[in-house]
Amino acid sequence: MEYRQLGRSGLKVPALSFGTGTFGGTNEFFQRWGQTDVAEATRLVDLCLDAGVNFFDTADVYSQGASEEILGQALKGRRDKALISTKATFAFGEGPNDVGSSRYHIVRACEASLKRLGTDHIDLYFMHGFDALTPVEETLRALDDLVSSGKISYIGASNFSGWHLMKSLATSEKYGLARYVVYQGYYSLIDRDYEWELMPLGLDQGVGLMVWSPLGWGRLTGKIRRGQAPTSGRIASGGDERGPIVDDEHLFKVVDVLDEIAKELGKSVPQVALNWLLQRPTVANIVVGARNEEQLKQNLGAVGWSLSAEQVARLDAASHKTPAYPYWHQRGFDERNPKPTSW
What we know:
Elements: E1 3-5, E2 12-14, E3 16-19, H1 28-31, H2 38-50, E4 55-57, H3 66-74, E5 83-88, H4 103-117, E6 122-127, H5 136-148, E7 152-158, H6 162-175, E8 180-186, H7 198-205, E9 208-212, H8 248-265, H9 269-278, E10 283-288, H10 293-300, H11 309-319, H12 327-330
Parallel strand pairs: 3-4, 3-10, 4-5, 5-6, 6-7, 7-8, 8-9, 9-10
Antiparallel strand pairs: 1-2
C-alpha cells in the first residue's frame, strides 16, 4: 500500500481508506448504501488491515450512529492499528442545538462519537458542512480545545465552498488555532468541479484531499453503460437520491473510454476510475466503500500500478466540461494563472 502525507501535517495515511457508510443501514436512505452487520464489518476490516488500509472513515449521521458503533466493535482490541475519521455538523436530534458547528454541538457530538466508537480519541475530525450561522472563530476554538485535550488529533473540512475554507484557514492563522489539514470532497471522472477552485486552493494552502464517492455516486462501477440499465447496485435500488445530477451522454462518453482502457490493461472500470484520481494533484486519500468482500477486493486493486500519460489524457478529454464563470474566463490568462491540471 502506498502512503501519502495528509496535507500540511505530519500524518501519513494510506492512499485508500475504507468508508463505512454501508455499515448499519438503519433507515431507508442508508439501506440503499448497504446493511453491513458487525460480523461482516469485522471481516471487511480484516481484509483492509491485511492490505495496509488502516484508515476508516465514518460520520455520526451514517445510520444515526450505527456506522460508528459497528466500526468500533469491528476494531475492538486493535484500535491501535487503525486511524479513524468521523464527522459532525448535520442534525443529530430534534433540538435546536442538535445541529451545526457551534461549540455546544461540536463538543457534545464529539463526546457521543467517542462513546459509539469505543475509543478515547479520534484521529481526524471533520466538520461535515459549513455552518454560516456560527462564527468561524467559535467553531475553530472549540475544535482547538478538543485537539488540546487529546480527544482529536487533526481537523478537516468537508463540503465547504472555497471561500468557506479560505476564511477558516485565515482565522486559524490569525488566532493560532488548529488548522484544517484536509478537505473531504466529491471528485470523480464524471464530476470535476473540485478542480476549478478547491484544487488550486489546496495546492496553495497545503490542504490535502480525501475523495468521497470517487465512482460518481455509483455510476462508474461498470454496471451502467450505453443502452444498458443497471440491474444491481446503489443506482438500481434508487440510491442516486441526494446525489449529483449527471447527464447520461456525458456519463456514457466517460464510461466508453473507461471500458477501452480497462480492456487494454486487464483492469476493471472502477479500478481505472480510481487510479485516475490517485494521479490528480492534492489527492491524499480516496475513500472507497464496499457492500461485500468482492467489491472491497476489486477496489483494493486500484493501487500498485499507474495509468500511462496517454491514457490519462484520453480520460481527461472524455470527462472535460466547460467550467462556470469566472473559471472559463481565467483560462484566457493562464500564462499568469497556471492550472494544476489540463483543461
